[in-house]
Amino acid sequence: MTDHDTEGGPGGPPGLPPPPPLGAAALPPGTYDGTVVLVTGGGTGLGKAVAAEFARLGADLVIASRREDRLRAARDELAALGGRVTAAVCDVRDAERVAEVFDAAQAAYGLPGVLVNNAAANFPVPAEDMSPGAWRAVVDITLTGTFLMTREFGRRHLAAGTPGSVIDIGASYAWTGGPGFAHSAAAKAGVKSLVETLAVEWGPYGIQVNGLVPGLMPHDDMTADIRGNLDPAGPLAARQPALRVGLPRELGWAATFLASPYARFITGHTLVADGANWQRRGLVGSPVVTVREQMGRAAFDGGATSPRTAQDGPPPSPRTPPGSRPT
């Protein structure tokens, strides 16, 4: 996608201005010199975009994901920005593997000073069709995985007596609920609670914990499930209060600020970067269309189940949907 795709149609109000060009930075050059940044789900999409902005500011990167092929490609792309990059295959649900990734990061560059929990799983499904395996897969990756990564980060900094910063990528339906995404919305609500809980527990030790919620930020790695939900909606920019969608680098800029020395007094906060889309309300409520109808599914007959079961393994999407209000 290009910056041109972010703008609404001609005429009418202008919407929010476009952001600075790719490669620009609000923070001083070298802000993250000597800092190790670990990004889960860093091989694709928004995770890779966040990692790139840390790299531009001098960070040494460790990117983790379940897909080795994507990690290799992302490592080469990020290394071209000038910093050191290590890739680690990791299932964030596996506490032993999580510890091994931290060991590898520490051996390569030193203890990560910033952790970005971006890894998640999601796909749209009516709650009545959701299998137990589908529920467990999404909640275990999104919530349990975030906790296991954060716990390992916290334990190592507490033992070393060093400060650190955690950023958990959330979703606005942690506040509102997410029809069609009951598993992910419940997990993201848990992630938001972790942010608020651990910020208080670990603040005395110098460890910040914040959340960061992306809005609609289309990118080439969006899954077919999520892209299929967006495409029928028509021009996306015209359906946002900002009259444009976000760009992945805008999430990266927000992340680099939250973890920077200039945001040390911000902790326990979840920042929403979505152009006010999740707060949008009409003067008169629109007609209710059930989730089943929106997804083109027949009436529930008592026997339908999600096509993804415990035997199928986790769903393929590595991210939450971009924004949690209808577009």
From TrEMBL:
Its EC number is 1.3.1.38. It holds the Pfam family adh_short_C2. Residues 35-205 form the Ketoreductase domain. Keywords: Fatty acid biosynthesis, Fatty acid metabolism, Lipid biosynthesis, Lipid metabolism, NADP, Oxidoreductase, Peroxisome, Phosphoprotein. It catalyses: (2E)-octenoyl-CoA + NADPH + H(+) = octanoyl-CoA + NADP(+); (2E)-tetradecenoyl-CoA + NADPH + H(+) = tetradecanoyl-CoA + NADP(+); (2E)-decenoyl-CoA + NADPH + H(+) = decanoyl-CoA + NADP(+); a (2E)-enoyl-CoA + NADPH + H(+) = a 2,3-saturated acyl-CoA + NADP(+). Residues 11-22, 313-327 have a biased composition (Pro residues). Pathway: Lipid metabolism. GO terms for biological process: fatty acid biosynthetic process. Gene3D superfamilies: NAD(P)-binding Rossmann-like Domain. Signal peptide: none annotated. Its main location: other. One of its GO terms (molecular function) is trans-2-enoyl-CoA reductase (NADPH) activity. It comes from the Bacteria. The keyword Transcription does not apply. InterPro entries: KR_dom (IPR057326), NAD(P)-bd_dom_sf (IPR036291), Peroxisomal_t2-enoyl-CoA_red (IPR052388), SDR_fam (IPR002347). Residues 1-28, 297-327 are annotated as: Disordered. It is an enzyme of class 1 (oxidoreductase). It is found in: Peroxisome. SMART domains: PKS_KR (SM00822). Interacts with PEX5, probably required to target it into peroxisomes. Participates in chain elongation of fatty acids. Catalyzes the reduction of trans-2-enoyl-CoAs of varying chain lengths from 6:1 to 16:1, having maximum activity with 10:1 CoA. Has no 2,4-dienoyl-CoA reductase activity. This is Peroxisomal trans-2-enoyl-CoA reductase.
